[in-house]
Amino acid sequence: MLTSYQLESPALTWGEDGAPHSNQFDDVYFDKESGLEETRHVFLKNNQLSERWASLQKNAFVIAETGFGTGLNFLCAWQAFLTEAASDKQLHFISVEKYPMTKSMLTDALKMWPSISHLSQQLIDAYPEVCHGLHRVELEQGRIQLTLWFGEAEDGFAGLDADVDAWFLDGFAPSKNPEMWSDNLFKHIRRLSHQGTTFSTFTAAGIVRRGLKNVGFDVRKVKGFGQKREMTVGELNSPTASLPERMSQGQSWFNLRQDNLQEVTKVLVVGAGLAGANTAYALAKQGIKVEVWEQGNCIAGGASGNPQGMLYPKLASQDTPVNRFYLSAYLHATRLYSSLDKNKQFWDACGLIQIPKHDKEAGRFQKLLDEKLYPEAILQASKDREDSLLLPLSGWVVLTKLCETLLSHENIQVCLNTKLENLSAVEAGGQTVGWQARPKYQEAPFNDQQTRFSHVVLCTANDTKALGVTSNTPDYPIRGQVSFIDIEKAKVACQAIGESTDKIDFDKVLCEFGYVSPSINNLLHFGSTYDLKDLDDQVREEGHKRNLAILESLLLLPKETFNSKDCGGRVSFRCAVPDYTPIVGPVQSEDVYQQAYSTLTKNAKWQSNEVAEPIKQLYINIGHGSRGLISTPLSGSYIASLITGTPSPLEQQVSHKLHPSRFIIRDLKRSQNL
């Protein structure tokens, strides 16, 4: 378990020529005179990338790299891919870095290469916060996908779910960084490779050549670049296990991958809330035609339709896979919203102050700060409220405008007033090859061809059980009433009791027992109630009173400062899950799982790489509760990666926690004690 998500920055010395030198490894990042040419020779030419890209048949090509450094190898691959691959193809580039550069370091290092400045500036603009974990960066409108692991190389590749076509084995000289080249690293290089995967590396060191040979690669030395005598190249020519088996790592019940990838023709996304909009958008950015069916008469009509939402990740005080998911999702969401709305039409990264509810929580906050679990750019002490935390990347969102923006992509067609009535699998050769969907009612009639889809994603929140097409998911609704009050009426109420109206003029989201956001359109939005086993969809005055008590506490005002008669509001129902984690991934058959993995009832530690049931091109994305603004963008990107067969943006430990079959497996393991 990690003790901190903070990472040590590289200790750099800058040469007179401006080139960075690593003090940790006493080595240079690149040769100023020939850095670009060396990258192109060692990694592009010796992996035959020009020829392979020119004849590329599949939709995406995957490169994995050891040692991101300044990103120079990535930039060269990106530049070459744009000119040498067909315009409908996609490049996925995966890299790991133990000592990631800060954005300012990266800026200084890449100044040396003006010929690629148009690409390096895009990388710098999109570069993630330096924080331990997996980060997905999208460039060129989604055509170039960069996945960065900040942390130990072995850990990054151990958790990776990808099928790599070419390896760039880079990094500092093995003699100066021998710890990276472990036996486990080579085992994961083999696990992530298929027959025909190639590699190249600048070094001819024995530790690298032996490691690759021992896991099955054919290895040979060739002429090095420039004055360097030798370098190493090779290929995996022996047959490999199927992709689902290679990715299982003993837990095949969490399979995500298709052995034979089904062609993606048209995807049906059911639901036009946050989960549906983000899923559709992630698919559309990869060139996929998406149809969104929404049973209501508007986009984001359910819980995703609250007038103002806030990014509140509820970061934990220790490292767990679920916390890593929310941390990664939080950073991903802030990058996405900033890229979508540069003019602050619906997203304002104003920051969020988390106020302790009691002394015990204040102590936990202080411990969190003292132990420095998170980088200061993500979490720090608030200067505005005593004993409180500041999340500077957070802010507020107008949810309906966000969903409308996501669904305005040219590859997305939204069908309102269209309820899914029936979903049936299209079989061929004993496998599911598509789905036939039937709407109950719609604005215009559909024919059979229009309702045939290669893949279906259910983003149906609390309506999922009623569809009858999935196992009995354990999600449940929680009623939430949000309230709003006119800013002028709020100021008058403050003046009436001798309180300053300055308390109404705050510039950050405030959270304690509930939340309040800075005003928009002269309204303060606040709440929310949390009502279990309550299905009343009407706004209630007692709900306003509870929300006003929350507001008064947040603003340090006396009780009953405001009048509930001055409030308006809205009721919706969160879709919650008992383990507080979304349900995201492929839908599998409960009966098949119970039979195939019954050994777990006798031995909870039993392992198997044998996949019991192929993926059926049916996926689910629900259960985001009150953190949908945080979790749905990354969840949508994750679903898109599963459908397209491209690298996952989630660590495997994390994806296991989201997997829809986790409840079946949990029950099997628990039954051994009965």
Characterization of this structure:
Strand 1 (12-14) and strand 2 form a beta hairpin. Helix 1 (35-44) crosses helix 3 (72-84) and helix 10 (274-284) runs parallel beside helix 13 (399-406). This protein has four domains: 12-248, Rossmann fold (3-Layer(aba) Sandwich), CATH 3.40.50.150; 263-303 and 402-474 and 579-594 and 614-660, FAD/NAD(P)-binding domain (3-Layer(bba) Sandwich); 352-392, no CATH class; 476-573, D-Amino Acid Oxidase, subunit A, domain 2 (D-Amino Acid Oxidase, Chain A, domain 2, 2-Layer Sandwich), CATH 3.30.9.10. It is of the alpha/beta class. The longest helix has 20 residues, at 321-340. The radius of gyration is 26 Å and the shape is globular. The strands form six sheets. Strands 16, 17, 18, 25, 26, 27, 28, 29 and 30 form a nine-stranded mixed sheet that branches. An eight-stranded mixed sheet has the order 6-7-5-4-8-9-11-10, sandwiched between helices.
Secondary structure blueprint with pairings:
Elements: E1 12-14, E2 20-22, E3 27-28, H1 35-44, H2 49-54, E4 60-66, H3 72-84, E5 90-97, H4 103-110, H5 117-126, E6 133-139, E7 144-150, H6 153-158, E8 164-169, H7 183-191, E9 193-201, H8 206-214, E10 218-223, E11 230-235, H9 243-248, E12 266-270, H10 274-284, E13 289-293, E14 309-310, H11 321-340, E15 347-348, E16 352-354, H12 359-371, E17 380-381, E18 389-391, E19 396-397, H13 399-406, E20 412-415, E21 420-428, E22 431-439, E23 452-453, E24 455-458, H14 464-467, E25 476-486, H15 487-496, E26 509-511, E27 515-516, E28 523-527, E29 531-532, H16 541-554, E30 567-576, E31 583-586, H17 590-596, E32 618-622, H18 628-644, H19 652-658, H20 662-670
Parallel strand pairs: 4-5, 4-8, 5-7, 8-9, 12-13, 12-24, 13-20, 16-26, 24-32
Antiparallel strand pairs: 1-2, 2-3, 6-7, 9-11, 10-11, 14-19, 15-19, 16-18, 17-18, 21-22, 22-23, 25-28, 25-29, 25-30, 26-27, 27-28, 31-32
